[in-house]
Known about the structure:
Blueprint: E1 10-18, H1 20-29, H2 37-40, H3 52-55, H4 58-65, E2 75-83, E3 91-104, E4 108-116, E5 120-129, E6 142-143, E7 152-157, H5 162-166, H6 179-184, H7 194-209, E8 216-223, E9 232-239, H8 240-250, H9 260-263, E10 267-275, E11 280-289, E12 313-314
Antiparallel strand pairs: 1-3, 2-5, 2-8, 3-4, 4-5, 6-12, 7-9, 8-11, 9-10, 10-11
Amino acid sequence: MTPSPWQGRALGTRTVSWTARDAILYALAVGAPADRLDLVYEERLRVLPTFALTLAQWAPDALGTLGAFDVTTAVHGSQRLLVRRPLEPEGELTTTARVARVLDKGAAAVFDVEVTCASFTATWSVFAPGGGGFGGDRGPSAPRRPDGPAGHTLTVATHARQAALYRLLGDRHAMHIDPGAARAAGMPRPFLHGLCTLAASLLPLADALGAHPAALVELDARFAAPVFPGDRLTLRGWTADEDRADQARTGDGSGRDRTAPTARGGTAVRFEASADDGRTVLSGARARFAPDLPHLSDLPDLPDLSDLPDQKEQHDA
């Protein structure tokens, strides 16, 4: 295997700050209703953990500026987030970024951009057409959803102004607002930011699980297809108990009780989302919500997302 010369590249350190106004604007942009005062009112504010991703957006942008890929055609392929402690309503953090790995998909490359700080670690996977073929590792196969029925089927409604609103939080790539830029990226019209779609999906999912959306501690999802502002999505979720039943049907045979995250006080779920025309827009997604404790440090020692039941895998095309 021949590694990419970009692999391991340091992208620098940046100090980022935010106010309650920023966190409230974020909550509204991803679909929090105006009567959800703990998300949109500064007197009771709990910051959504995915807001952290707007604070670290500088890192993948910096890599594009360095010339690692064509910023007019590269798209956000997947996102991971590990939360170490909740964000305060206002504050400041020092973030450090690097290119953790570069995968060779043949006709394209995937750049994993990792951002770390005291409160979280976030990893962007950027899919860059034309960047592959350097002889590097192809990477793991994409996970498939469980064969069994979902325990939760929910609706996520996006709105026509959502991309225009979300871009005010820092991701101002033209393809989300300019029809010409969207066509240059291979899309018929401007499309919603993947991170906005993901955060919007987590709100009803947390409610269905009886969790607080601000109690998210881990997240991993792939952006399988674009979402256009105004699309209505169907979200399906499988909790640990449903996964165990599916493993029993498919003959896991490990003998291991993999519902431990729920038993120890957290809630783990796998989920996907699809549009009305049937296209899957979020796939292989996993999330974990902590018990609704005042401080994340009070949380029991929960295993990470890899302790969810193994998904069957499908090979990339």
